[in-house]
Amino acid sequence: MMESQMLLSKSWTSCPNQLSDIRKNMADVCQQLYFSENDINAIVLAIDEACTNIIRYAYNQCQNGEIQINVSTDGSQVIFRLHDFAKHVSKDCLKLKPTPDLKPGGLGVHLMQEVMDSVEFIHTDACKGNILEMKKDLPKEKV
Amino acid sequence: MSFDCSDHLHYKVLHLTGEIDLSNSSEVRRCLLDIINQGNSVIVDFSGLTYIDSSGMATLVEGLNTANKKNVSLMIAAANGAPLQVLELTRLNQVFSLIDSVSDIQE
Questions:
Q1: Is the ipTM of this complex over 0.90?
Q2: Min distance A142 CA to chain B CA atoms (Å)
């Protein structure tokens, strides 16, 4: 397995108006990795949903927080690490509802889990805030 | 993102253009619920929509629930590309009535 290669490391403020630029940056990285258009749409959506949750729930809509996104690859997967510097959030917020229902909430987590191959929080005592790590297998023909 | 409203037969048509996300979905929500609460059936036209996130989809779900309570209908027209993918990923394509275009609705 190859060493991890950093593809992007960039920070944005926790302002909803930044989401469009985050999506553009994520789409650019995914294009470099030869994902299909459908996969790029889905991955961009999953990252957008994660950032939306950070803005809404970690920063509680406060717009001067920081969202740092590191994108790397180990040769078999692309790894997205979203780091916020807000209070710790419960890992339970990534749990899916037992049954889909027709309610407006909870769609974002469902989308992240549906699109990515793994979604998990990495909590370290040394690190302020929360790190959400999402991994997606690279397209087979390009691995 | 921009939106405007027109009439088609006895339907109000809400045309959505551009990208809907957390930064603007509340504007769409206000407009959609206003239309429905006035007792109108509505077609949400996705033909100019390039992106919608879960906050936008939640707005549509709320609109559909409100429409059901008011005994009016809510349909989505011309979903394609990324917005259609979101409908499929959330399986809301099985919940909403989807039509190919606004002109599919005829008297």
A1: yes
A2: 23
